[in-house]
Design goal:
Shape: globular
Keywords: Signal
Distance between the termini: 37 Å
Oligomer: single chain
Largest sheet: 9 strands, antiparallel
Pfam families: PhoX
Helix content: under 10%
Number of helices: 4
Protein name: Alkaline phosphatase PhoX
Strand content: 35-45%
Structural class: mainly beta
Length: about 475
């Protein structure tokens, strides 16, 4: 069952707010009033951009995206097409990063968020768990953007949602799952007894060659979504996407600085963010204008808990977060994409914020944690200061932001994961929300969404995925220097 289909079926924080300080996105207002100036899908041009218009895919002439004038795109790495190693391209394209390749080319490492129990793509003898259909593929493009190689880089993992690039030349991929032979699945019809390994970890995937298939267990077993690396401290910041319970914002401190080790080592310390002086601060709720908080970090004593056979998914999915909450950690709703820039980690709370009257999320048959249309947060690593960058006032303005990227000029790029039409939105440092692209929903796949936005090393191309049954990667060119 697709996550959004499952979701579709179914007090203001005070006291700890602090005076804001100067910096990128400083002074943006929560629920910015002037961003709701048009209806959904109406022209909302960004800085120098015009209204969106149907734009044919240069690969085959089909209209899959609406873009401003001056932008063009083409598809590559389409699900089902044979890769260079003979393996059919997996579906459900998700998080992704672009790296500088050889001779001016680009290397993309791309997640495939295949859920549940399914045969591993590629060679099952190479798989972490042959009963899981998730993993990553690596695409090599030449200096002109032509796809010259595509192959499996890790297989046999589950629900590879997002992750994060590492500056030594690797991608850390995240399992948004806690399934295993010890856990009873959340959804009927899935047989976890077929699984051979525990899931819910992060894995490092090198730029070239195959991954080691060794989970970083001390970085936690939970619904991992994304990671962001701080090259100064060597810490890795992690988000958690649990749609039924409070989520945490974590940091993993490896035993050796990764820039010295040349890779991410297991055996470090996992911690969870807490608002100083306010235990269990409910940050999933609507925030006051310019909300800023000083924070501390609380230790997670058992990051890889052993579950007794027959443990329910709902219990297992909260086992790590509940340790932090018991020590006063802050509460978020569905933390998803994250990105690092100049000492700050930006991350999305997909269902955070206050619900606008008449714009409530659809009812669901379980307790849902978070009723808003999305928040964007910024964590200043040096100052240990958390700040609300933006809170959606209405789904017509921003609807459930998921993956996030940052342009060379500092504009945040937000991938929506809402119902109906999904957009790529831009959020400028002046607080302007604007439309970059609208996806034409594929026939028969209403759950399709944007995912994995990432800029090429030269900043001239935005790569982004259509997460769909027939997933594909778009390479979008245009005047990105104005973004």
């Amino acid at each position: 069952m697709e996550r959004r289909s499952f979701l579709a079926r179914g007090a203001v924080v005070t006291g700890a707010a602090l005076t804001a300080t100067a910096g990128p996105f400083q002074g943006l207002v929560a629920a910015h009033a002037d961003t709701a100036r048009t209806g959904r899908g109406g022209p909302r041009p960004g800085p120098g951009f015009g209204a969106l218009a149907p734009t044919p895919d240069r690969t085959d002439g089909q209209v899959r995206l609406h873009l401003p004038k001056g932008f063009a795109y083409r598809s590559l790495g389409v699900a089902g097409e044979p890769m260079s190693d003979g393996v059919p391209t997996p579906s459900r394209h998700d998080g992704m990063a672009a790296f500088r390749g050889q001779r001016g080319g680009t290397v993309l490492i791309r997640n495939h968020e295949v859920p549940g129990v399914a045969p591993a793509f590629g060679n099952p003898s190479d798989a972490y768990d042959p009963s899981c259909g998730g993993g990553t593929t690596t695409l090599t493009l030449d200096r002109r953007g032509n796809l010259v190689d595509q192959r499996v880089s890790i297989n046999g993992t589950m629900m590879n949602c997002s992750g994060g690039p590492m500056p030594w030349g690797s991608w850390v991929t995240c399992e948004e799952a806690v399934d295993g032979p010890d856990v009873v699945p959340a959804f009927p019809g899935q047989d976890n007894s077929k699984l051979t390994r525990k899931h819910g970890y992060i894995f490092e995937v090198p730029l070239y060659g195959r991954a080691r298939r060794e989970p970083i267990r001390n970085a936690g077993r939970f619904q991992h979504e994304s990671v962001a690396f701080d090259p100064v401290s060597g810490a890795v910041f992690l988000t958690e996407d649990n749609f039924v319970a409070p989520c945490g914002f974590y940091r993993y401190v490896p035993p050796v600085h990764p820039l010295r080790a040349g890779r991410l080592l297991d055996g470090g310390r996992l911690q969870m963010l807490a608002v100083r002086g306010r235990p269990n601060a409910p940050l999933q709720l609507g925030q006051p204008r310019g909300a800023t908080y000083e924070v501390d970090w609380v230790d997670i004593t058992d990051p890889d808990p052993a579950h007794a056979p027959g443990t329910s998914w709902f219990t297992a999915s909260s086992a790590v977060a509940n340790q932090g909450i018991a020590r006063g950690a802050a509460l978020f709703s569905r933390l998803e994409g994250s990105t690092y820039r100049h000492g700050t980690v930006y991350f999305c709370s997909t269902q955070g914020g206050a619900a606008a009257p008449g714009d409530e999320l659809p009812p669901v048959p379980f307790p849902r944690f978070g009723e808003g249309r999305g928040q964007v947060w910024a964590y200043d690593i040096l100052r240990r200061r958390l700040r609300l960058v933006y809170e959606s006032p209405h789904s017509q303005v921003l609807d459930l932001p998921d993956n996030i990227a940052v342009s060379p000029n500092g504009t945040l790029i937000l991938c929506e994961d809402g119902d109906g039409d999904n957009y790529l939105r831009g959020l400028t440092q002046k607080g302007e929300i604007f439309d970059i692209s609208r996806m034409v929903t594929p026939a028969g796949d209403a759950d399709a969404e944007f995912a994995g936005a990432t800029f090429s090393p030269d900043g001239d191309t935005l790569f982004v995925n259509m997460q769909s049954v027939i997933g594909r990667t778009f390479a979008i060119s245009g005047p990105w220097d104005r973004c």
